[in-house]
Amino acid sequence: MPPVLYIVIPCYNEQEVLPITAPQFLGKLKQLIRERKISDLSRILFVDDGSKDKTWEIITRLSAEDIHFTGIQQSRNRGHQNAVLAGLMEARDLCDITISIDCDGQDDINAMDEMVDCYLDGCQIVYGVRKSRDTDTFFKRTTALGFYKVLNMFGVESVCNHADYRLVSSQALQAFAGFKEVNLFLRGMFPLVGFKSTSVYYDRRERLAGKSHYPLPKMINLAIDGITSLSVKPLRMITVMGLMVAFISFIGVIWSFVQALRGMTVAGWASMTCIICFVSGVQLVGIGVLGEYIGKIYLEVKQRPRYIISQRTGSLVEKNNTDQSSETGAV
Ligand code: UDP
Ligand code: MG
Asked: Would you say residue 326 has pLDDT above 50?
């Protein structure tokens, strides 16, 4: 029996692009079913991330038209990462494999064939990696490259140029369900799950319609979240920086002492001001980084649900609506 595949697609205010890409996803699913690579029980699972436009109406219409379309709606907008998580957790008991992909047609759906082949060869996680970013603007290309460089520098293990287009088996998803953190950075978390994994390469295209929800400030936030959720390297860097400043200060103290003994303690306003400014700057950066981590701890200890499902399309079986209820073992 071929594996059951669920294609998980987060959508936020995507009424322009969904009518274009939904038939493409369906075409790909049906082709894979025809080739007997996947079962006919396979589905496309849209996750409406609290859209304010007609996205949910489109999803319900699609699911009434074809049994292969299904959808869940989040009770409000919680962001891309939480939307993908909601879809994956919804799908994990219904299928053997999931593929998460954005709904804007930027990621090449033809890479799914190779992803499924890799799964059939025994890989539990297959990362979709962008071969080229020729269609991205120079600005997007440079900032995206900087994003991966900064992540690696701060010790986050992530696959370069891989976003959230990936195949994950239900076995890996069951293991992943044990990662309870509220601060999500999926592309950095899946490498921590382990299992046999590989990458497939594809060309990144332009968005088919609508506009990006990831402008630069959001990318910077995502990078800070990624780093502070997955690495304590910045805290160590503060310690190292503190030691270095302490060492320089120690030399400064000896120097001042010697100067005092030689009777050469002429007031040095400029140097004193520089030192005070430098040290207080270093301290403020240190406090800021500590604050980031304390903020993360604050959010983690509250253990709020990471997603809340408010509606499902007809063909989906009713089950728990938040990830918290599944934590109590009700699933
Ligand atoms: N998305 C979402 N919730 C959000 C923002 C985005 O579910 O709050 C979805 C969006 O509909 C798309 C995917 O996440 O399917 C990636 O978003 P986008 O294409 O805007 O990002 P980019 O490709 O420009 O980085
Ligand atoms: Mg996009």
From this structure: no
Q: How far is the CA of 216 from the centre of ligand 2 (A)?
A: 13
pLDDT digits (tens, 9 = 90+) for 140-149: 778 878 888 8
Report how far Cα 164 is from the mean position of its chain's Cα atoms: 6
In a domain, 48, yes or no: yes
Q: Please indicate, yes or no, whether the overall pTM of this predicted structure exceeds 0.70.
A: yes
Structural domain range at position 11: 5-230+304-330
Check if the beta carbon of residue 188 is closer than 8 Å to that of residue 228: no
CATH number of domain containing 42:
3.90.550.10
Cα-to-centroid distance, 12 and ligand 1 (Å): 6
Q: Choose the residue to mutate in 9, 11, 12, 13 for probing ligand 1, maximizing ligand atoms within 8 Å of C-beta.
A: 12
Atom of ligand 1 nearest to the CA of 207: 19
Domain count, the chain: 1
Domain assignment present for 296: no
SS3 201: strand
Are the C-beta atoms of 99 and 169 separated by less than 8 Å? no
